[in-house]
Structures are given as C-alpha cells and as structure tokens.
Amino acid sequence: MTRAWNFSAGPAALPEAVLRRAQQELLEWNGSGASVMELSHRGKRFMALAADAEARLRRLLDVPDGYTVLFLQGGATQHFAQIPMNLAGPEDHADYIVTGHWGEKAVREAAPYLDARVAATSVDTDYLRLPPRDAWVLSPGAAYVHYTPNETIHGVAFRDIPDVGDVPLVADMSSNILSEPIDVSRFGLIYAGAQKNIGPSGLVVMIMRDDLLARAGRPMANIFRYAEHAANDSMLNTPNTWGWYLAGLTFEWLEGQGGLAAMGQTNARKAGTLYGAIDGSGGFYRSPVDVPARSRMNVPFTLHDPALDAAFLAESEDAGFLALKGHKAVGGMRASLYNAVPLDAVNELVKFMRDFATRHG
Ligand code: PMP
After folding, report:
1. How far is CA 204 from the centre of its chain?
2. d(CA 140, CA 64)
3. Residue list, annotated binding site
4. Helices (H) and strands (E) in the chain — how many of each?
5. Which of 42, 107, 159, 236 lies in the 20 to 30 Å Cα band around 291?
6. Is ligand 1 within 6 A of the CB of residue 147?
7. pTM, whole model, 2 decimals?
8. What domains can you pick out in the chain, each with its CATH number?
9. Residue environment code for 120-159, b if the CB has 16+ CB neighbours within 10 A, otherwise e
10. 300 within ligand 1 shell (Cβ under 6 A)
11. Where is the Aminotransferase class V domain (predicted)?
12. pLDDT tens digit string along 57-114?
C-alpha cells in the first residue's frame, strides 16, 4: 500500500492514525456487534459517542458557556442560505465581507432571504489582498456580519478577528477551523464543513451563541430551524453517524497532538517552510497573495513559465504528491496544508520543488 503526500483542498487528508483506528473498528465497534454505521443514533452507545465528540470539540476550542454545538448536514453551502433564514427576517439586512470565491457564494445564497449587503470586498485586487478594515461600510442595524476567515481557493486569510462592535460576527471556518486556537467568545456563530480539518464530507459543525438561537427568523420547516436541532441535540432526524464518529476520532487525535496550540505552531512552521521555498526560488515560483494576507492552510503558487505547469503536475504525481493543481478560478498550483498534512510532507514537497526548478530552470 502506498499513501501519497496528499495536498488536497477538500475532501482532504485525514490523520493516518484516525483511518487505521476506523479500519480496526469498521466491522465491530465498541462491543456492539456491528459497525458504528449500522447502529441506531438513538442507541446508548452512539449517544455516548456523540456526547464525547462534542465534549472533545468544546475542550479543544475552549468553547465558553452560553454556546450550543451542532452536528449538521448539508455542507457549508446549505448554511449559506440557512443562516440568513434563521438569524434574520425578510425585511432585515446583513453585512458581508467578501474576500474570495466562498464569500461571494455566501452573499449570493443569502440574497433570497434578506437584504445581503457587500460591506467590503477585495474583488478589485483579484482577491489577492484583504480590504482594509477602515474601508468597510458596515450598515447600522445589520442582523450580523458574515466573513470567511480563510478563503480556500484564493489562499487569503485574516490573522486577526475583525472588530464589528456588538453585531454578531458569523464566520465560515470551513478551511481553518481547529488549525490554531481561536477566541470563540468573539463570534456569534462559527460553522464549518468537515471535509478539511474535521473528517469526511457530509457533516457540518456549528458553534452558535445561545441568544441567536432565539431569533425568530421566519416561518420555516423545523428541519431548517437551528433551535429545533439544538433542542434535539442534533438528532432531530438521522444525523451523519459515520461523520460524527470520524470527527470524534479526529478530535481525540488532535488532543493527543497537544491540542490547538501545538497544531498552530506546526501549521505556522509548515506554511513558513513552503512560502520560504517559494520566495527563495529566485522567481521560479511565485506566491501572488499579499504577504500579510497569506493563508497557512491553502498556498496557491505559480510557476514563472505556465508552459511548465503540465510537467510540474505530472512529475509531482509520479513522485507521490497528490492534488497540487490549483483551482481553475486562479490557475497554477495549490498546496493545502491542513492538520493531517505532516511537516514531513511539506519538507518532501519543498525538496521536489527545488529539484524541479534545477532541472527546468
Ligand atoms: N466555504 C469554504 C471556505 C469552503 O472551502 C468550501 C468548500 N471547499 C465551502 C464553503 C463549501 O463547502 P461544501 O461543499 O461543504 O458546501
């Protein structure tokens, strides 16, 4: 068996230890006589698993009292629409900070449900920079401010949590959750699709300040209502039990790695190694993103001659590196460095890049 060095943007690499544990337990889990996938979510064993995963996530992120944790489905995309449905009425407005593809999509999906205003955008820089905070035009009375701390495709990230006063801050953390410690108390709502730093796709983790659960929103089916999911411990209907199980194993693995402080240090080192190699390549490789806005999770880069792209991709794949092709919206290459990508993988990639540059320079 050969597992490649996997730089996929998502679904992304999972910790090998988690996959091995799942493999071991696949046919018979925890004395139950069946796979975890074959058991009722209402059974004692699964309920205990669910509570344990939530407790681990709360510990990892140091979630303060007064926040509800939900394990939902629908991908982050469904929640682009469901968040405005729940947090605002049709006559309300909300502010969106757009710093890349996913922020654009969040506004578009919110627009049928409220007045979704673009309070700041960096589209004029091709999303290579962040819009300066003093240029944001936040509107009085906004139901919330939405932003994307890490834009997966453009590789642009906020290092600091923006100050938006008393308005609840809503963050799509799909591609940076659990990558370093964060101050959850600064947020009204955090949500993330699981398939980068949590587990397999098909699961969405949401952390929501309790007072926001009480917002009336509008008439809608219970299945769309976060307060109903909360009242039913995320078991209003059948949850993604397999995703929840793997998320729990990932949280346990993260605790074993020393928690988010340790992950943050490793992630800074991984990103520093790769950006260092790009910047030190004498122009053979280039990172187009404004230095202070560079993401630690997703590193887009270009080759000085795009005619070499095909050779880079073919040779890197032969050398055991997976998924380095950039998103078609930006072209070039992209290496995603989520938690499950070890420093060794980045060191090997950098070695390959230097060697490629020597051979093709
Ligand atoms: N937001 C961000 C930041 C993402 O990276 C992605 C997926 N790559 C999404 C939202 C959409 O997630 P999903 O496909 O799970 O709906």
Report:
1. 10
2. 28
3. 42, 76-77, 102, 152, 172, 195, 237-238
4. 10, 14
5. 107
6. no
7. 0.98
8. 16-256 (3.40.640.10), 259-360 (3.90.1150.10)
9. bbbeeeebbbbbeeeebeeeeebbbbbbbbbbbbbbbbbe
10. no
11. 5-348
12. 999 999 999 999 999 999 999 999 999 999 999 999 999 999 999 999 999 999 999 9
Q: How far apart are CA 283 and CA 253, in angstroms?
A: 38
Count Cβ atoms below 10 Å from residue 344 Cβ, excluding itself: 10
Give the other-Cβ count within 10 Å of 114's Cβ.
23
Phi–psi pair at 199, nearest 5 degrees: 175, -145
Question: What is the greatest pairwise CA distance in the chain?
Answer: 63
Phi-psi region of 331 (alpha: psi -120 to 50; beta: other; left: phi over 0): left
Closest CA to 54 of 43, 67, 38, 44: 67
Question: Over the stretch 174-200, which tens digit does the pLDDT of each residue have?
Answer: 999 999 999 999 999 999 999 999 999
pLDDT single digits (tens) 10-69: 999 999 999 999 999 999 999 999 999 999 999 999 999 999 999 999 999 999 999 999
Q: What are the structure tokens assigned to 255, written together?
A: 């605790």
Length of the chain: 361
Element containing residue 38 per DSSP (H, E): none
Check if 10 has its Cβ closer than 6 Å to any atom of ligand 1: yes
Residue numbers annotated as active site: 102, 172, 196
